[in-house]
Amino acid sequence: MAQTFDHKAGRAVSRRQDEPEESNRCAANGCPLRGHVSVAGGREVCSAHAAAAPAQWSQVSEAIRDHDWLHAFIRDIQGMGDGPWVEYATRFWEEADQYMIPTPDEAHYFDAYFGRLLREFLYRVGATTRRPQRWVAADARKKALEAGYRFVRGNAS
Ligand SMILES: [Zn+2]
C-alpha cells in the first residue's frame, strides 16, 4: 500500500487512514472497518458486525462498502470538534435527506447528533432494524423525570 507521511502524527501512515491495517481489521469477511468489539473466539469486529446477526454478516459487509461516503462523513464530523459541524452537516444533508439535518437541540449538543449518526450508520447498513430518532432535549428530560432522575444542566443525574 502507498505510504505517505502524516506530519501531525510524525510517522508514516497508509495513504487512506480509513483503511485499517490487516491486524486491526474487523473479523467479518470483506469488512473494511476497524474491529474494536470482542466477539466469541477472541476476534474483534466493528460496531456494525457486533450488532448484526452472524447470518447477516456478508450482507452487512457489502452494505458498509456501499456506505463508505457515510463513513467518511462521520469521520469528517468527528474531526470538527468545535468547528462548523452544524453548517457542514446541514449542507451535506439538505438535499439528500432532511431527516439527517441536526435539529436545533442537536445543534447545541454534539454528542447527541454524533450518537444518532453512528446509529444511523448501523441502521443503513442493515445491522439494526429501527431507525434512530432525532434527539430532542424535551424528550430526554421527560424520560429522565419519568425514570425518577433529577434534571441538571442538560444531563440526568
Ligand atoms: Zn465489520
Q: What descriptors fit this protein?
A:
two-stranded antiparallel sheet; alpha+beta; 11% strand; 7 helices; binds zinc ion; 157 residues; 6 strands
Question: Can you tell me about this structure?
Answer:
This protein has one domain (3-156). Residues 1-15 have low confidence and may be disordered. It is globular and about 40 Å long. A hairpin with a 4-residue loop joins strand 1 and strand 2. Strands 1-2 form a two-stranded antiparallel ribbon. Strands 3-4 form a two-stranded antiparallel ribbon. A two-stranded antiparallel ribbon has the order 5-6. The chain is α+β, with helices and mostly antiparallel strands and 157 residues long. Helix 3 (68-78) packs antiparallel against helix 6. The chain is 41% helix and 11% strand. The longest helix is centred in the C-terminal third of the chain and has 15 residues, at 110-124. The structure holds zinc ion (ZN). Zinc ion binds next to helix 1.
Secondary structure layout:
Blueprint: E1 3-6, E2 11-14, E3 37-39, E4 43-45, H1 47-51, H2 57-66, H3 68-78, H4 85-93, H5 104-107, H6 110-124, H7 137-146, E5 151-152, E6 155-156
Helix pairs in contact: 3-6
Zinc ion (ZN) is lined by residues 26, 28, 31, 33, 45-46, 48-49.
